[in-house]
Amino acid sequence: xxxxxxxxxxxxxxxxxxxxxxxxxxxxxxxxxEIDLSQPESLEPPVREARPDVIISSAAYTAVDKAETxxxxxxxxxxxxxxxLARLAAExxxxxxxxxxxxxxxxxxxxxxTEADMPAPVSVYGKTKLSxxxxxxxxxxNHVILRTAWVYSPYGNNFVKTMLRLGETRDEVSVVADQxxxxxxxxxxxxxxxxxxxxxxxxxxPTIRGTFHLTGQGETTWAEFATAIFKGAEKRGRKPVRxxxxxxxxxxxxxxxxxxxxxxxDKLDDTFGLRLDPWPTSLDDCLDRLIGPKEEDPS
Length: 299
Ligand SMILES: NC(=O)C1=CN([C@@H]2O[C@H](COP(=O)(O)OP(=O)(O)OC[C@H]3O[C@@H](n4cnc5c(N)ncnc54)[C@H](OP(=O)(O)O)[C@@H]3O)[C@@H](O)[C@H]2O)C=CC1
Ligand SMILES: Cc1cn([C@H]2C[C@H](O)[C@@H](COP(=O)(O)OP(=O)(O)O[C@H]3O[C@@H](C)C(=O)[C@@H](O)[C@H]3O)O2)c(=O)[nH]c1=O
Ligand SMILES: [Mg+2]
Prior knowledge:
Keywords: NADP, Oxidoreductase
CATH topology of the domain at 2-158 and 183-217 and 261-277: Rossmann fold
CATH superfamily of the domain at 2-158 and 183-217 and 261-277: NAD(P)-binding Rossmann-like Domain
Number of strands: 12
Strand content: 15-25%
Protein name: dTDP-4-dehydrorhamnose reductase
CATH class of the domain at 2-158 and 183-217 and 261-277: Alpha Beta
Bound molecules: NADPH dihydro-nicotinamide-adenine-dinucleotide phosphate, dtdp-4-keto-L-rhamnose, magnesium ion
Shape: globular
Strand order of the largest sheet: 2-1-3-4-5-10
Order of helices and strands: EHEHEHEHEEHEEEHEEHEHH
Domain RmlD-like substrate binding: 1-290
Structural class: alpha/beta
Catalytic activity: dTDP-beta-L-rhamnose + NADP(+) = dTDP-4-dehydro-beta-L-rhamnose + NADPH + H(+)
Largest sheet: 6 strands, parallel
Low-confidence stretches: none
Pfam families: RmlD_sub_bind
CATH architecture of the domain at 2-158 and 183-217 and 261-277: 3-Layer(aba) Sandwich
Mean pLDDT: 97
Number of helices: 9
């Protein structure tokens, strides 16, 4: 099976490469400089040439704050390029898997969001990602849109790596404690994507198409997540770092973020029998890879 993936140095595309190699799957990653998603027509030649059995659309403009000013660029990459890719998939008569985000939701719901809830993004990034979803649905029914959240991994840039970097020079880091969400490990996303890809390539059943939520089990706040990161780092020999819990108002940013972006993963489990590992289990794996194994308990 030939799997075409957009993105070359990102968290999810790298995880797909690492896991795909282990499973003996052929992963073809395309990205800058050969293709530039801000010029979506640049996708056509490499996609046709690759003759894939399935496309995984992972690349995106993920700088949430910068998107507030680079609106047009973010729209091209997150909105229009997925639409072009989905039209190509339709033409080639192959399925497309696409990653979207918890930031399509406003964040004012008390419970976790389900696929039946109405998106209402509060940031440019969220709006452009929603446009990508809409353009994919319009182009082909043969799609699986997977909304994930708070992605971290040993690869690329993410909150875990940012905290570890800040912890090198500080004894305390202030982190927002009033945004609730589901940290998700990119290697777990890759595991799910490859399992789903293998199913949709051989099975035309419409009930395994559509929109699904895909996050690590469990929920937390950024402050609690940071605390777990520093505790895990300390068990691996790093110096202790305190987390000072603050409010969103204390940490002004150009983009507004949802207060609650927890996603309910029941539909994915019911449809594909897939549940991602709990985020603390995955965080351990991530820290093992970034720092090394936990030190022996002296007792
Ligand atoms: N990170 C997160 O917390 C979350 C991510 N998602 C979604 O999951 C998907 C994967 O995210 P993640 O792996 O973290 O993203 P990353 O930011 O780690 O990687 C994004 C990839 O897209 C590439 N890219 C960006 N702009 C262009 C362009 N103009 N042309 C070609 N390639 C480009 C990047 O290349 P380069 O590095 O060279 O710029 C990089 O390889 C995205 O669709 C994202 O919206 C959803 C929820 C949470
Ligand atoms: C670095 C830092 C961040 N924060 C806050 C800002 C923000 O509310 C939260 C997380 O910071 P980040 O910059 O990682 O957050 P952000 O870039 O908004 O992360 C989002 O990325 C996009 C791509 C998604 O799709 C989302 O699911 C989500 O993962 O923590 C602190 O409070 N203290 C700090 O020292
Ligand atoms: Mg960020």
